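hey so i finally got around to running the thing on that chain from the lab meeting. sorry it took forever, my laptop kept dying and i had to restart like 3 times. anyway pasting the input first so we r on the same page abt which one it is
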Amino acid sequence: MRSGRGGQGKERSTDDFASLYERYAGRAFRYARMMGLCESDADDVVAESFLKAMRARASFRAEADLSTWLLTIVRNTTLNLLRSEGRRLARLERLAGRKQAQPAPDLPLEQLERREMLGAVETVMRKLTREQRSALSLVTTGGLSYRQAAQVEGVAEAALTSRIYRARQSLRQYLTEMGMLEAE
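ok and heres what got predicted. didnt touch it at all, straight out
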């Protein structure tokens, strides 16, 4: 990120922020959703994370990957939200009280099947440990390499690789039990 020095300081900084947001907000949102946040909480996490990044832009080290730095902020913000007891209880109450939405009768079959598959994946992702879900999400939806994801998680690359392997094994098992995959 540029500091925005010169005659166009604030304008340049705003342009840089908009560019960063356009480039990384989708990844950040997908990561937060894969970690189990509802859409509105994921939106809040993304917004808060980008504000934190703008405030802390002076601490960004040029030798670091920008995507790794930003997703670390998103990860920490997501985990803080998940740890928050009041928010967690409110989310659980919403989930427990939520009625199953009936599909609209005019939706094409492909859309209904896609929604069913996405719902199954979200359900299965919640069954993974937080560490497995985070590692898998950083690589699959965050677009990070194993090395970058290990940096975000603060673990060795071998540990991250193990988490992803165990997560994929568990996903395969759960989806097979649900009848979404055929047994090998």
